[in-house]
């Protein structure tokens, strides 16, 4: 697998911490030249990923990122659209304003559409490329108290990804979705802390609420590296006949087949 990835160029959005960092490190260790984006520079960049400062919620960021990558490397082989966040308050429909809805959709859906649109022409020209859109189990298992607008945006991302895979498959570009469940990241821990504060409960009680809602048969959160392992396989030559597919990696939480 590592031999098939050596010297390829990859973009990992939101690649400075959590799942994104784990993916960036995994690809780098396989010989990939990795570009990461985030609003602020990473404090830990031991693998020496090339960093581009970007706020993906801003429409102009995609063209800026694409231009810099193509000027520096002359190509792009892998796009991992990982940047995303649940930006709305809990409590259901009455607590979510138009601004909240817009923020979630800009961050979790439109940012991906714009990055792909900016870089896909280069992939199509070279007749090869792989796109992995990081979605969420919440897109198929929404929790109305916690993830209504976020889940909606991620569900749209799933549909868009399937349509895009159908469009560009004959042009040498593969598109797949990875849908993690609950993952032990800083954002997830902050999410649990916010639930604790808003419900006047302990961190342990808030964690139990989340785990009970999601109902993970394996009884634990995923480690970011476990998501990275799946992504690394999907972008490798070993997965060259896989496209248009959504992979749940959620410890068995999704209650349907």
From TrEMBL:
Classification via Pfam families: adh_short_C2
CDD domains linked: SDR_c
Gene3D superfamilies referenced in this protein's UniProt entry, alphabetically: NAD(P)-binding Rossmann-like Domain
SUPFAM superfamilies: NAD(P)-binding Rossmann-fold domains (SSF51735)
Family: Belongs to the short-chain dehydrogenases/reductases (SDR) family.
Name assigned to this protein: SDR family oxidoreductase
Organism of this sequence: Flagellimonas sediminis
